[in-house]
Design a protein that fits this description.
Number of helices of chain A: 0
Largest sheet of chain B: 7 strands, mixed
Radius of gyration of chain A: 13 Å
Order of helices and strands of chain A: EEEEEEEEE
Helix content of chain B: under 10%
Oligomer: heterodimer
Number of helices of chain B: 0
Number of strands of chain B: 11
Order of helices and strands of chain B: EEEEEEEEEEE
Radius of gyration of chain B: 13 Å
Largest sheet of chain A: 6 strands, mixed
Shape of chain A: globular
Structural class of chain A: mainly beta
Helix content of chain A: under 10%
Chain lengths: 110, 120
């Protein structure tokens, strides 16, 4: 079962907006509105930042936003800050009660 | 506060089995699913499986079918993940994560992680 496809790295200047893509198929991203995004800092457990494609859990900054078009989901970080430097993973429900993560994207500042 | 506390680090030989526990507190155990996710050194997150504590229903990633068993003990609010026939490539940090339900993948609370090292 193959992982969802993300760019290996994305970089941006402080204050800039960046977008991370997450490419899947009609059996996962395209077929369900069950896309989540996680932020992981080095040596820490992942943290949920987006669920249900575009919903933010309580306490998550509105600088983080999610969307979906067809088989591709996207995470946008607006007003990039130093603390946003981390690894980001998408995940999706896939048919037959299976879940799958993306390959992960490292966000770095310029 | 809502918390998942995992058991300590393990070192196992190839071919052995490991059983990792995840104890939930401060929420209704039967109302949320429980995922297991692993991360090999320097690698990404990998979904392994899920259990519905209410009825014990499970689902596993195809990659781990036949090697992984996820169980739960409702008397102690604890979920277990047992991985058998360990290989060197099973060396990883194993996380449990609370899921909103069986399908949404909304993993909102994570355990601290358990390091499993497979070494001869």
């Amino acid at each position: 079962q193959s992982a969802l496809t993300q760019p290996a790295s994305v970089s941006g200047s402080p204050g800039q907006s960046i977008t991370i893509s997450c490419s899947g198929t009609s059996s996962d991203i395209g077929g369900y509105n069950y896309v989540s995004w996680y932020q992981q800092h080095q040596g820490k457990a992942p943290k949920l930042i987006i669920y249900g494609v575009s919903n933010r859990p309580s306490g998550i900054s509105d600088r983080f936003s999610g969307s979906k078009s067809g088989n591709t989901a996207s995470l946008t970080i607006s007003g990039l800050r130093a603390e946003d430097e981390a690894d980001y993973y998408c995940s999706s429900y896939r048919s037959s009660n299976i879940h799958v993560f993306g390959t992960g994207t490292k966000v770095t500042g310029l | 506060q809502v918390e998942l506390v995992q058991s300590g680090a393990e070192v196992k030989q190839p071919g052995a089995s490991v059983k990792v526990s995840c104890k939930a507190s401060e929420y209704t155990f039967s109302s949320y699913s429980l995922h297991w996710v692993r991360q090999a050194p320097g690698q990404g997150l990998e979904w392994m499986g899920i259990v519905n504590p209410s009825g014990g229903r499970t689902s596993y990633a195809q990659k781990f079918q036949g090697r992984v068993i996820i169980t739960r003990d409702t008397s102690t609010n604890t979920v277990y993940m047992e991985l058998s026939s360990l290989r060197y490539e099973d060396t990883a940090v194993y996380y449990c994560a609370r899921g909103y339900d069986f399908w949404s993948g909304r993993m909102d609370v994570w355990g601290q992680g358990t390091t499993v090292t497979v070494s001869s």
